Amino acid sequence: MSLTLEQVQRIAHLARVEVSESEALATQGQLNGIFELIEQMQAVDTRGVEPMAHAQDLSQRLRDDAVTEADRRAAYQSVAPETEAGLYLVPKVIE
Amino acid sequence: MNQWEVVIGLETHAQLATVSKIFSGASTAFGADANTQACAVDLALPGVLPVLNKKAVDCAIRFGLAIGAKVAPKSVFARKNYFYPDLPKGYQISQFELPVVVGGQISFPVGSGEKAYEKQVKLTRAHLEEDAGKSLHEDFQGQSGIDLNRAGTPLLEIVTEPDMRSSDEAVAYARTLHALVRWIGICDGNMQEGSFRCDANVSVRRPGQPFGTRREIKNLNSFRFLKEAIDYEVQWQINEIEEGRAIQQATVLFDPDTGETRTMRTKEDAHDYRYFPDPDLLPLVIGADWIARVQGELPELPAQKRERFINELGLSAYDASTLTASQEIADYFESTVAVAGKASAKPCANWVMVDLAARLNKEGLEIAASPVSAAQLGGLIARIADTTISNNIAKKVFEALWTGEGASADEIIEKQGLKQITDTGAIEKLVDEVLAANPGNVAEFRAGKEKAFNALVGQVMKAAKGKANPQQVNDLLRQKLAG
What ipTM was estimated for this complex? Predict the structure, then answer.
């Protein structure tokens, strides 16, 4: 399997990464290199092997349902570019 | 309309009843000042890691068991990637390939009276995920304000198969689900605060044909809007198709002011979200012992209670459904029956559904806040059953209990001298007096006017201040008039 240039540009758009034509071409080459590696791995016979969801074969640690975080809004908002009335301000987004 | 079949599937987001968020220790309390409950994890500051809230998993297991689903021994959290400012990480932690709850079903009655029928809806899955924050677009010039208090609030997304065939079925399902999540205590069900919201997937087709293209109506937060939005959408789709236009898969919003749906975005394909297992979270493993513990804590479910009310107490299906609409109503009814006795189950049902409900409604009170307790009402109904008082006098006693004139029906009956007169001698005396004082009525009755008899009964009851046993009054009057 290999990626077309259009697919690379589409992925870049979904990830909100701006790529020029030449960057897209370079990225296409790199990604297709990775796909070759994946193809090699997929050629391995894994019948009877249970898929893993994580590299570590452990299960999720859980926490009790308790409020442990105090309000630190002032500290967090002191590093935000812009705030008003306790809200973080961002460029207008409306679909 | 008959030539089109409506196909509906619902996705419901139920906010889980935890005090802290699903992956952080920030509070989930509603109504706090903007961003005062958004901690470093919720803000996605660099270096933070999510740690799963055990109670959220408990809630998911509870739900799975309540709908007869399979609780997955191993489920996986995945990243759903998209860009929006109220989602600081750039992805929502959700579950994709391996959800925590798989399958299950919910049954409920649709409609009432002779047209009522039982409907069964299959569930596809239910999965745990985090809520996003809130964007406010109105008040800022060229900017949006972001409140992340809601970010990271635990949700259970409950997905049905496309099993519903009308807006009425969809609403009946949503109401049943709403009652169920409250019943098992996993969600407060507050729709105004967004604790329970529905997305409806709607399509139309000719019967027997494959499914049509669906459009998804987002964020319906009342049962009325759910019905209105589906009805509008169905009519819109039928018109489009009949005018030769194909339906495009899309996400739409319902505007309650105009009653119309409008396109929000054309649906991105599922793989556009580029789901992949979240490397920050290990698989969620739920052992048989955990499931067994939750099973042991589960209350009797509404459907089970409903069956029991029908089979053990002899209630009608309608009464049994009404009395299992919420845990509070069911508890009240059962406590009433416990005092009045099972033989009085039917009168207990009537008192709770009619007299009490009307009085509560008038005062705008919930049943949990009723001034008349279940024990008091049960005591009252017991006195009707043993003929200490008539139904009419009972209404008087009920009112006295409501206004706190006494601690029990017995006390009020005693204090206000409301005990029914069943002494034949005493009633006979009253009857004789009334007959002597109303020769006109007697003559009319003897001339064949049945109405005159009722007038005489009324006179006797009046003389007895309503306390004479009505059956005895009737019998004695007939006897005397015949004689």
Answer: 0.86
